[in-house]
Amino acid sequence: MTNYKYYSGKNNPPGRSGKNDPGELIVNRSANEPLRFGRGVVTGTGTDGVKVPVSGSDKFEGVVSADESGHLYDADGYIIGNNTNDPVGVFQRGFPVVVVEEDVTPADVVRMRVVQDKAPGSQSRGFSVTKTAASASGLANDATAYTATITVDGVAKPISVVGSAAQTLGTVVSEVNVDLGASATMTFVAAGGTLPNGTVSANGALVVTSATKGATSSVSITDGTLFAALTNINPAFDTAVAGSNDFDVTKEPGMFRKTAIAGQTALLAGCRWASSSNGEGRAILQLTGETVTMSAD
Fold first, then answer.
1. DSSP string of 27-73?
2. Residue-wise over 279-293: b if at least 16 C-beta within 10 A, else e?
3. C-alpha torsion 9→10→15→21, nearest 10
4. Which of 50, 158, 203, 215 has its CA 20 to 30 A from that of 105?
């Protein structure tokens, strides 16, 4: 039988009380899904059910309290939360230690992530000589139409760029974006900039990024005559980067922060920071027992 351990961490683990508060209130709820200690939860389904937030219109219930009765374990056998249908303690008043995505101070507002950070699909192609957006494109300065097909999220977008309208790499980008419309965006990444695959651009690159995010987001570029005609373009496109539902596991629903991200976070009114973050991704949140309201960013 595995001898499971309770996570102690440093400087107070997530879900523990950060201060001695005789007025602390932890209520019993039922986990609708796996819930990690020190994360915010919202009203779920069934009697007293709580769940991970999914939108800014959810009703905030409190913060998951750490205890040794949870049945959610990490790879090393440490208890890190409550599994589906477990009883779960939820801080509604007190000073729970919560998980933060960025540094916070008592002067900051309180926000909670409600949507998982996701990555868009993309594809790039670099140059063999250092370029800028002002560099000459190499396209003929006449009515020649240069073509390509950029498939975004499975839908082919025909691209046609007239040479006289695209004499610099910056204007090539502008012309391509006209044909891409709202589906995707081409950008020029300067030398030294980070490409979607995480590498550093050596000489500059053209990057097309889908407007959507997640596992169904994708970009695939098939050249006709456009890219091959650009001066000093690399021989081939970089491998396409697939969209992901798990772009950054340090940014998950129920974590807290101060900075708004449109469509991904919600402002919490009725609570405040009782400490600055400790450099280990944790801070103390003060819940006074008053109703905490959520409003989508």
1. EEEEESS-EETT-EEEE-SSTTEEE---STTSPEEEEEPP-TT--EE
2. eebbbbbbbeeeebe
3. 140
4. 50
Q: The pTM is what?
A: 0.63
Residue 173 sits at φ, ψ, to 5 deg, of: -60, -45
Sheet with 265-269, edge to edge strand ranges? 256-257, 110-113, 265-269, 293-296
Q: Closest Cα to residue 38, out of 278, 244, 293?
A: 278
Q: Please give the pLDDT value at position 72.
A: 76
Parallel, antiparallel, or unpaired for β 60-64 and 87-94?
antiparallel
Side chain identity, residue 224: G
Which residues are CB-neighbours of 251 under 8 A, at least 6 positions away? 101, 113, 116, 117
Task: Indicate the helix (H) or strand (E) that contains 208.
Answer: strand 205-210
The residues with which 110 forms a beta bridge, in sequence order, are 268
Give the pLDDT score at 169: 98
182-224 per-position pLDDT tens digit: 999 999 999 999 998 889 999 999 999 999 988 899 999 999 9
Q: What is the pLDDT of residues 6-18, one digit of tens each?
A: 333 445 789 999 9
Note the pLDDT of residue 11. 54
Radius of gyration of the chain from Cα atoms? Answer: 25
Handedness of CA 193, 198, 203, 205 (dihedral sign): negative
Q: Are 254 and 87 in contact (CB under 8 A)?
A: no
| Alpha helix positions (H), 98-252 | 169-180
